[in-house]
Amino acid sequence: LQTLPPVQLAHKYFELFPEQKDPLWQNPCDDKRHRDIWSREKTCDRLPKFLVIGPQKTGTTALYLFLIMHPSIISNSPSPKTFEEVQFFNRNNYHRGIDWYMDFFPVPSNVSTDFLFEKSANYFHSEEAPKRAASLIPKAKIITILIDPSDRAYSWYQHQRSHEDLAALKFSFYQVITAGPRAPSELRALQKRCLVPGWYATHIERWLTYFPTSQLLIIDGQQLRIDPATVMDEVQNVQNIHFRFDSHKGFWCQLLEEGKTKCLGKSKGRKYPPMDSEVNHWLFLSSYYRDHNVELSKLLHKLGQPLPSWLRQELQKVR
Ligand code: A3P
């Protein structure tokens, strides 16, 4: 019997089992063999009970802030690297391991009543996130927010412009959404990131291959925007938070005790021109998303979920 020093041995191991280079973390406390070698100083309670998965630009920050108004709902601490979001399940951060992830969460003072959660809006369309999340936190609730995918695409484009994404500054929205296969690669890449998260049914189906329907909560983003109190009532009965419409901001904001309002920052509810109705943006996007929206309506039917009003309007255009 031969052996090697640890690093060389590890190299040898991965030569023999290359498929194991990509780990799939499980909760160490769920398996006795893991629990036995898990440090006594550590706990398995520093994991989220629910995830807000996005997609981006649907109101995820509003939902996040409304949720943390509740004293028992606690989020992760911000990550300086990834614009505050942890982005564990979708990216290479996953390879940093579960200790790295757990360090973002406090040890809950009461495990049964405190709800830890995390919001990373890129989880929604990630190929890897559903499988990885289901492996580590199989009981977690998954919350997604849907708005008209055309509005989402436009809001995302404006978001990229204000972050000074060079391609977004260089090309008009119309150029982005209509770019063909021969367009420059930077434009094609931007187009993909702009449009693909809006294939709602495809992404939701992927989550549902790993999580039971009962754990999925779909929020109508339009309703969240115009009537946040009702939506928050439906989400885990988050009550006792008060809103007031701020006409200057044009959105509902938190009503503080002294009668003032606390709104989201400038980067949420941005001021930008509406989609130009002269150019055929709407027609293009409506036809681009038609099949995806039809699929979404079938899926929601199957799940016994109501259709959001924007989806009903879109489907009427199909007929
Ligand atoms: P716009 O800035 O394009 O209007 P996310 O947080 O997922 O990035 O979503 C941002 C979007 O949340 C904003 O897009 C805005 O329309 C929407 N939103 C919903 N409710 C809001 C609120 N109460 N305050 C600010 N923005 C809100």
Automatic annotation (TrEMBL):
Residues 48-262 form the Sulfotransferase domain. 3'-phosphoadenylyl sulfate binds at S155, W252, K268, G269, R270, K271, Y272. Disulfide bonds join C253-C263. It comes from the Eukaryota. The active site is at K57. It is found in: Golgi apparatus membrane. Belongs to the sulfotransferase 1 family. NDST subfamily. This is [heparan sulfate]-glucosamine N-sulfotransferase.
